[in-house]
Amino acid sequence: MLKKNRKTLILTSIIILLPILVGIVLWNKLPDTMATHFGIDNEANGFSSKFFGVLGLPLILLAIHLFSTIVTAKDPRKQNISNKMYTLCLWIGPCISIFVSAFVYPYNLGIKLNIGLFASLFVGLIFIIIGNYLPKIRQNYTIGIKLPWTLANEENWNKTHRLAGCIYIILGMFIIMAALIDAFNFLIVMLIAVLISVLIPSLYSFILHVRKGL
Question: pLDDT tens, 167-193?
């Protein structure tokens, strides 16, 4: 799997590190202490050194990216992971890296953006994309809803992931609409979405296991 996607892995790794190049170009314009974390009010509530802001964040994302792609490629059931799903996993890291830098650098240069809005749109889109892929995932140990019952029974796995796919798409649309009409607090929306996306598929999978022996 790694050999087949070597070029994509290299490309995505380079994209993850691109913000470092941007940071070096902007180095003299950036403050020595950079805002790197933001609250729901779009104001900074976490700060780091310029060195960490420019170099540390992309390098951490790269480490996570490489670890997750290698672990996925070594899955005992890797034959059940389609190349499309693996490619999707490869591109999550670069998207996050570009997204984060697109807000961190402008903010530290004095350009204020509606971070909550764009974060909601980004997360909502991720939910929709994942929801479209969930029903197509076959049993494996690294991608999907990995519960004792889903891993033990293929029918349980398939039914749980079909339901989860619908839930993720609905939640993604809700997150986007809530962001556009600014009707709910970003933190509350994210908390509700995470709870629903985890609890309902898990409960459904458990009920299938208890009632139908799946």
Answer: 999 999 999 998 888 756 777 888 899
